[in-house]
Amino acid sequence: MHAALRDRICLLDYTPGTRLSEAELATEFKTSRTPVRRVLARLEDEGLVQTRHGIGTIVTDANIRTMAQTYELRMELAQLAGQLSPRPVRPADLQRLDALCRQTEALVIRPDPRAFAVLNMHLHQFLTSLTSNAALCQVSDRLYYQTARIWLLAIPDLDLLSEVQIFAAEIWQIHTALSTGDLRAVGLLRRAHISMSFKRLGGF
Q: Mind listing the pLDDT tens digit for each residue in 134-164?
């Protein structure tokens, strides 16, 4: 339930200001309100929703200006992911990255904001899986999902095709580095990509 609601918020299925009903969610997920309350409390701790007296649980807004420090920390963690407890690269990892490359190539032909956001999310999940440092994974996830909505919210002011092409170039660079087992280079590439994305969004 937590992952499903988090993804809905980050993909703007629930836009900022949307009220989340405990009763409706309990019915949808076929559970009591108690697990729903626990999930909503976790999402609030992650900064994705806010409980307002007399109103209920509301999806929070995401603003590039208020996320500057979060982006800075994300950059540093991306680099650390290639240094702290990296695990050996397996053939299955390259196959998974191959699939992401093919999906990105298809997206270049037919750009779609939501599909692009999903691909970016999958790349984050893949790169996080390359370290066995559980604490690093947990913090990286938290910060990523806090900022994930910003790009989709900003897309009307961006060149979608250009963004997809930049992403495609990054993912192929990561593929080249990963093929040689150079996880340090993978971390540096991801750090650079996060930095440049933030600049294009108007940060720094």
A: 999 999 999 999 999 998 999 888 999 999 9
What's this model's pTM, rounded to 2 decimal places? 0.92
DSSP, collapsed to helix, strand or coil, labels residue 86 as: strand
Is the separation of the CB atoms in 101 and 172 below 8 Å?
A: yes
Query: Long-range contacts of range 98-106, CB-CB < 8 Å, 24 or more positions apart?
Result: 98/175, 100/126, 100/171, 101/168, 101/171, 101/172, 101/175, 104/164, 104/167, 104/168, 104/171, 105/168
Q: What residues have CB less than 8 Å from 13, skipping those under 6 apart?
A: 7
Tell me which amino acid residue 124 is: H
